[in-house]
Amino acid sequence: MTIMDNAVYVDGLRTANPASIEETYEITRARGGIAWVDLAWPTAEEIQQVAAEFALHHLAVEDAIAVHQRPKIERFDDALFMVLHPALDPDGSGDGRIGRVEFGTLHAWVGPDFVVTIRRSAVPDLATMRERLESRPNLLRHGPRAILATLLEQVVDTYRPVVTRLRTDIDQVEDRLFSRDPEVSRGIYEATREVIGLQRATLPLVDVLRALRDDAPPAERGPGYVELERHLRSVLDHAVKYAETADTYRSLLANVLGAHSTLVTQEQNEQMKQISAWAAILFAPSLVGTVYGMNFRHMPELHWTFGYPLALLVMVVLGAILYRVFKRVGWL
Predict the structure, then answer these.
(1) What is the pTM of this model?
(2) Which CATH code of 3.30.950.30, 3.30.460.20, 3.40.50.10890, 3.30.360.10 fits the domain covering 3-264?
């Protein structure tokens, strides 16, 4: 099984390192405390095995197996089930191109005496998070809710570099907007795609945090409840900030796209004016040449000595007059 870490905590201290899920369940029931099992990219069979040990609801198990879901929180009996989407911001290449932001998946079950995390993402670094929590036993002794609050904080923190990157990407698009760069359209759509991804991750998360804030049963409202609620409010404030920023970025990109469409239309109109002007200029000599190319027997000036030079002169004069007219009105 892809177990990254497996531990039992009593009074905020790590007291056991079980070798299997079955042993974790037995130790927790025999000695008390809380269990924290961390799985990475598990198979459906492995998830079913963990669910069987901790008596997890089958609907939550089905959701954990399904990867593509929006962030949400659901309560099944005395356990919470959460779906989160941390962001993985790739390193910038420094070449001015938009970098794609990836979003992973993190599932978490939180019961009265256990936490099971299932991650399909390289972030957040739960090993580092566990070390931080273990160095703060006063916080960890508050139980699974303390682990959950810290986990949510770690997930929300993954959005900070993404917001910064998107701001830089949008600035680059705005700088290139009036440069007639053919890649501007692609940059706008790629940045919009990233912002939509950020919105899909943050907007539902705000609802998740608000529901979690109001969901704590009386049994969990112990001495550390006020401190944890203060922590969750701080996480909620950051999530709201990132969700609002994503909404602002999307509106900004919509305005940029509108301005770009206007510029493209204006440029196409200018090109159509030039094409129409040259078509009119070339139409004048074409008309004269067409008339005298019909090969009728009786046509004015057909056998006149100066007929051919006169026809050429008429073509040139008409073309010059039309060129001057279109030049004056700005079509050329």
Answers:
(1) 0.77
(2) 3.30.460.20
